[in-house]
Amino acid sequence: MGTKPGAGQQAVNAALAALAKTGDAFALGQLWEINRGLLRALFWRWYPAHRTLADAHGMTADDFEQEGYFAVQYAAQTYQPEAGSFSNWLGQAMQRQIGRALTGGHRRSVTDADGKQHTVSANPLNHCASLDTPLDEDDSGASTLGELQPDPAAASAMQAAEDAIFQEQLHAALEEALHKLTEREQAVIRGKYYAGKTVRQISEEQSLTIGQVNTAKTSAFSKLRRNPRLMRWREETIQRRAWHGTGFSAWYAGGSVEERTVEHLEIKGIYFAVNAKSVV
Description:
- The structure is a single chain.
- The protein has 280 residues and is mainly α.
- It folds into 2 domains: 7-121, Rna Polymerase Sigma Factor, Chain: A (Orthogonal Bundle); 162-275, Orthogonal Bundle (Arc Repressor Mutant, subunit A).
- Helix content is 60%, strand content 4%.
- The chain has helices at residues 7-21, 25-34, 36-46, 51-56, 61-78, 86-103, 152-179, 183-194, 199-205, 210-225, 235-242, 257-275, and strands at residues 107-111, 117-121.
- It has a two-stranded antiparallel ribbon with strand order 1-2.
- Helix 8 (183-194) crosses helix 10 and helix 10 (210-225) packs across helix 12 (257-275).
- The two termini are 41 Å apart.
- The model is unreliable at 120-127, 234-263 and 271-280 (pLDDT under 50).
């Protein structure tokens, strides 16, 4: 199971995997989301050669994708960059996860139509429960299992409204804090963390020495660290909520998962520095 995403995605994969390994829940979620297409492709490569096995367990593309989340989680925890690309590592992790899902620790042998033997689970995955099943079998008027199922559309609408308010507040706090910096400090912070420029590029564009750029950055972080409005947006909040939905630089136009991921990594750079005890 292999694939060859572009170098840009591989770099993002590696960065997200490193963050996810530290327990960053957002990074893990984004790592899974941007690799969902890859996981689908892996399924349709795997399925034709293992159709009998998959059908015996009721395994569908959706099941495969769900198992893919655990494969991404395992891959992030074990990934070794020196061994190659994350996508290839994920392919191996997916093979491992399929084996675990199909056997579940209770194994038996089956023979397919071609006479090949496979080790499979003794407990198929496709157990079903009717949505009409009453929650209390002794009460004919009791609520059913189906009535407790969430409404994805309603949940999505509520989440979108909540995120819009939250991001508007975060956007305002960041902009207010940045506008309290000097023009030089703003140029350095925006250039380095929003535009991804190097210190040398900033120094050339602003007609500053490298030392002056570093001094401006240190001064800016010192001011941001003491800004009372930014105290609200601690790392845990940023990690779990702020980047769900529209990204910062795509504020008015929306943004793709990849764009939001890059934005998240850029802003985390600011927050790591702002919240650190010292600036390197």
